[in-house]
Amino acid sequence: MSEALPPKTCTIDKLVTKPADIARVLAGEKTATRRNGRYADPGEIMELDGKKFEVYKVYRQELGDLTDAHAQAEGFADLEAYKQYIMSMHPGMPWLPQMKVWTHEFRPV
């Protein structure tokens, strides 16, 4: 039995918005995204440039638990590249291993 998810804090249309990230999703290089809030329920459909993607898994994860494989699902070569990208979008924000984020995994429909 899966744990009930709390209410969403945003909407699925805000899940992937940066042009570079959209391009990674469309190219099949990005199959997950991490956000501070919960943007989708499992089964919801995200549409990017006319293509549909189903969010099939949503769960909490600590930054300290991320691996190179997680970074590759985000469309980056390794964890360090992903970390640098995140830090460039949030200047002054520390990378705290215990910080929890919401992971949204998706696949083409």
Layout: helices, strands, pairs:
Elements: H1 19-26, E1 32-35, E2 45-48, E3 51-62, H2 68-73, H3 79-89, E4 100-108
Antiparallel strand pairs: 1-4, 2-3, 3-4
Low-pLDDT runs of 5+ residues are: none
Largest sheet: number of strands, sense, barrel closure = 4 strands, antiparallel
- As for the CATH topology, it is Sulfate adenylyltransferase
- Helical element count? 3
CATH superfamily: Sulfate adenylyltransferase
Number of strands: 4
Percent in helix:
10-25%
Q: Into which percentage range does the β-strand content fall?
A: 25-35%
CATH hierarchy: architecture? Roll
The N- and C-terminal alpha carbons lie at a distance of: 25 Å
Cα shape: globular
Structural class: alpha+beta
* Tally of domains: 1
Can you write the helix and strand succession as a string?
Answer: HEEEHHE
Strand order of the largest sheet: 1-4-3-2
How does this model look, in words?
This protein has about 110 residues and is of the alpha+beta class. The protein contains 3 helices and 4 strands, in the order αβββααβ. It has a single domain (about 10-109), classed as Sulfate adenylyltransferase. Helices cover about 25% and strands about 25% of the residues. β2 (about 45-50) and β3 form a beta hairpin. The two termini are about 25 Å apart.
Name a few traits of the molecule.
single chain, 109 residues, alpha+beta, Sulfate adenylyltransferase, four-stranded antiparallel β-sheet, 3 helices, 23% helix
